[in-house]
Amino acid sequence: MLKILKYSIFDLLRSRWSYVYFIFYLLLGFVLLFLNSDINKAVITLMNIIIVLTPLIGTIFGVMYYYNSKEFTELLLAQPIKRSKIFMGQYLGIALSLTLSLFLGLGIPFVFYGLFKSAAIFDFSLLIVVGSFLNFIFVALAYNIALSTENRIKGFGYAILMWLFLAVIYDGIFMISLIMFNEYPLDKFSLIATMFNPIDLSRILILLKLDISALLGYTGAVFKDFFGTNFGFIISMFILFLWVFLPVLRMKFKLKKKDF
After folding, report:
1. Residue 19's domain spans which residues?
2. Is 102 in contact with 58 (CB distance < 8 Å)?
3. Whether the model pTM is above 0.70
């Protein structure tokens, strides 16, 4: 698995899209800090970009890599190697390479502008951690979709639809539900509904750490009472870990039954 992981990382490093992804975040960091030298404000702006863009890139890379390397994967499957090791190596290679691009692309400009001397270092670290979680989550979800769909066009379509649902449609349904049932106590419903969407959960975590939860009104107060505590933070990280673990577990079960 480690050999396949190493090959996947080097294969992605040779791809121009990995460099485009890295350069995009590098330029984004320098431009934001050049226009506004306040690191705290730059972190807030980056949050809005990373929360939406990172899942999209992870989804596209995951599906694209699976279909493009399908012939090579079939060659590996003919060897005495476990299926789980082949696909786990590929999955970790994609997720780690995307996380490395995110970390270096944003880390270099922020360090250059004095991140270690700023009080925003903890907020920035949380942003990177959350972005890394989103990479691992959406690459795993994309691999599950690709494993379940042989047709490339359908696979890409389902993957984009999945990202669109979690990034946009889910929030719309959530807000409509809050408006329609505003006469009822919705505290627990809001907390549980947030945990069922990794993008929303990541956004809430960063908003609370940036101490701008007041923008969320009454719902923000409810979130702060739970997610703002140490226990709530640990639970949130555990939920994000489950969002990685469960798709990977499902991928392993799918591999046992799939006929290549």
Report:
1. 2-257
2. no
3. yes
